[in-house]
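Hi L.,

You mentioned the student needs an example of a multi-chain input paired with its predicted structure. This one should do, with 275 residues in total across all chains.
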Amino acid sequence: MSTTTKTSKTEHRITVRSLERFKSANQPITMMTAYDFCFAQLFDRAGIDVLLVGDSLANVVQGRETTLPVTCEEMIYHTKMVSRGASRSLVVADMPFGSYQGALTEGVQNAIALVKEGGAHAVKLEGGRSMHEVIARIVGAEIPVMGHVGLTPQSVHKMGGYRVQGRGITGRERIIEDARAVQEAGAFAVVLEGVPQDLAAAITDELVIPTIGIGAGVECDGQVLVMHDLLGLNEGAPSFVKQYARLGAETLKATRNFIDEVRERKFPDPEHSYE
Ligand code: KIV
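Structure written out for the whole complex:
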């Protein structure tokens, strides 16, 4: 079978190489989370570069306190839906807590499952120096890896809460070393979360691979937001979030209108009924 034939589905696909080129051309990379077919299709049509099937689905889809309970099966289930909706965007699936911190072979197998069963083009995992070996092994299995350093939600108990990382000389040096380790291990990009903007700028300047920031200032090579925060579906979003829509309020309004019209026997009217 020829491997050079391009199908219409892959012709304009954003790839890990595209992100490399974006960094060289100083073209900011856009990334958003998505967890299902409907939103993935909309974000893809809007032109988002990367769709992240984030383990943040624990919070915004499953209503959990932390991302820790998410399983590989759940990530695969959501990744399948997002992959079906994405014809142009690069689909990156988060490796959930416990799926890569143990035996190296288990980490590689779980990454393979996200690609093979879920249809992801790449995986993301949290951690820096301590994850060097597993990143290298997954890359060695031909799967592109996106790193994630700084505020890593899977380390919530070790960090003592969700707090900005990389403050002070030692904290700063630790995050720089984590970012270097991720690059050195072969990752194609790295998420910088919850770090001071000057630190994110310094890392972005030093690394060859693109940095994608969340709560890390404007100097990163790209930006990512959780879709529920960006679309205003969440109440009480963190201060670094900008809400580009108020879909939560719109949903309440539409639902209340429906309730009122049903109770007043205004819906369905003749236009919405069969003869
Ligand atoms: O799970 C997630 O949504 C993430 C982003 C916040 C980067 O990791």
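You could point out the following to them. The chain has two domains: 16-244, 246-275. The beta strands are 29-33, 50-53, 90-94, 122-124, 145-150, 189-193, 211-214, 222-225.

Best wishes,
N.
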